[in-house]
Amino acid sequence: MTTIKVSDEQEIISRLSSYVQKISNDAIHNRGKFYIGLSGGSVVKYLCEGLPTVDTDWSKWVLAFCDERVVPEDSDDSTFGTYKRQLIPKTQLKESQFVVIKQGVSAEEAAKDYTDKLKAAFNGDDFKFDLLLLGMGPDGHTCSLFPGHPLLTETTLKVAPITDSPKPPPSRVTLTYPVVNSARNCIFACSGAGKAEMVKRILKDKEDLPASQVKPVSGSLYWIVDNAAAAHL
Ligand SMILES: O=C1O[C@H](COP(=O)(O)O)[C@@H](O)[C@H](O)[C@H]1O
């Protein structure tokens, strides 16, 4: 694991964008496509500001979601909806490059449908992402994998529904650890004093929390934290 301490949110954005540029270009060079998993929450802002600066072949990108809220696409809570409004217009990405959840169905049906769409995108059921961009909530959750939740031990489903998310909205779909930990690269990006205590509990005290269970089996793990989030390290 590599921890990268930077001064502020702007530097998080520029470091994250450099990693995305390198990893995307390597993936496209070596395998012809770049599979990236996006998160919601604060990561959206980093990516909507940073990705438009990346020098890459956008046509080779396949974009999916580490987790998604089961809400209408035009809701502010929809992670895809937010990228659609705030990222697509600033890049050459097309909406058809995003693997999105089905609208107007239950979390269970959305999870099954999203699994099928990922199988089509990956040409099989080995969902090996080149890069997952992850956030960590102040409670230590990542994706929609929350402390104490039974989904933390899910090993059969690759994509799971959740209807009792402690953070609203309650209905979501999420990648599970077997998929997360098979990624070639996982990057957490955290900023602000509100994350400092949890960053310390995970990176210094090595407590067993959802974000600590992200340990790519044969991939690389990076934590990019700003000074405020790294205050107790
Ligand atoms: O609800 C969610 O929260 C996490 C963390 O969000 P943050 O705003 O605290 O960074 C996010 O990674 C996840 O994708 C999202 O659905």
UniProtKB/TrEMBL annotation:
Pathway: Carbohydrate degradation; pentose phosphate pathway; D-ribulose 5-phosphate from D-glucose 6-phosphate (oxidative stage): step 2/3
Domain of life: Eukaryota
Reactions it catalyzes: 6-phospho-D-glucono-1,5-lactone + H2O = 6-phospho-D-gluconate + H(+)
Xref: Gene3D superfamilies: 3.40.50.1360
EC number: 3.1.1.31
Keywords: Hydrolase
Top-level EC class: hydrolase
Residue span(s) of domain Glucosamine/galactosamine-6-phosphate isomerase: 8-223
A Pfam family the protein falls into: Glucosamine_iso
Family (UniProt): Belongs to the glucosamine/galactosamine-6-phosphate isomerase family. 6-phosphogluconolactonase subfamily.
Function: Hydrolysis of 6-phosphogluconolactone to 6-phosphogluconate.
Protein name listed in UniProt: 6-phosphogluconolactonase
Annotated organism of origin: Loxostege sticticalis
